[in-house]
Amino acid sequence: MHRILLPLAALLLLVSAGCGDESASGTASSPAAAQPQTAVALWEPIGLRDKPGKGSDAKYLTGINFGEVVTLTGQRHTDSADGGKAYLQVTLADGKTGWAQENLFAAGAQRAVALAEADLFKRPELTTLSGVKLAPGEVFAFTTGEQADWLEVVTREKKKKGWIRRDGSISLEDADVAIGILLDRALREKDPKKRSDALGLITSNSAFASSPLMALATEQAAASNLPELPASQLYILSDKVNVRSEPNADADNVVFQLKYGDICNIVEQGAQEQIRDMNDYWYRIEKDGQEGWVYGFYTSKKL
Length: 303
Known about the structure:
By secondary structure, this protein is α+β, with helices and mostly antiparallel strands. It has helices spanning 2-29, 174-187, 192-203, 214-224, and strands spanning 38-41, 46-49, 60-64, 69-79, 85-91, 97-101, 105-107, 110-114, 118-121, 129-134, 139-144, 150-155, 161-165, 170-171, 233-235, 241-244, 254-258, 263-275, 278-287, 290-295. A five-stranded antiparallel beta sheet has the order 6-5-4-1-7, with no helix packed on it. A five-stranded antiparallel beta sheet has the order 13-12-11-8-14.
């Protein structure tokens, strides 16, 4: 009898110990719930389809707008029939899941908006100033590196890339980012009535009332309602616009400045020039007997 009981007791001890080890091991090895990786749309619209690729069997589901945040499922597909393009499976805020082209997103990024003009740097180092700036209201995607006070950023359609200081010149607040996105969309509207209506929706929305970007939205809304001028005149649509002795933004040639709402006579249309991410014409203008050159981007003649 003793020969039977002892092995059974030992077996029970082993089973009990094993169960205890399994429970402890299971608790220790269970990974913390991982945060789903997100991506920010950099183009508009981006087609979401039920299958990767753009073949006839890939059904179009909906469009994804610039600045929209999607959740990555972790699935990726390379379509050899579509030039080797890569596609990501993403989930939208409403739960809709589908496939979209990978290079149209900033993967692993968050979104933010510039509250004021902000300098971009080539690297997270103050001596690498690039000369490129973010404009007030400009929305961008960012990732963080090892230095918490720097953000690596990319703007719409990847037109600007670089590093920015994480300070009071930017905001991650949803309301501020939303104003930036809606302003961008409104100002791209070619139809004056639709543009005015879109700007009015921003300025009349109480959810945006406390945003520091509301002043910019109000300014743009007022500009859209300015009386139409003859082709021989233009409005100044930015504060403190430099008027130069020649069409050269890099020279020390500022002769006077104009303010928002000023009406100028156009003396001559000059050459078209790319300045950073802007592409517009120079105009030789006259205001109260003074003449000089202004860049069209800051006027009602903006392309």
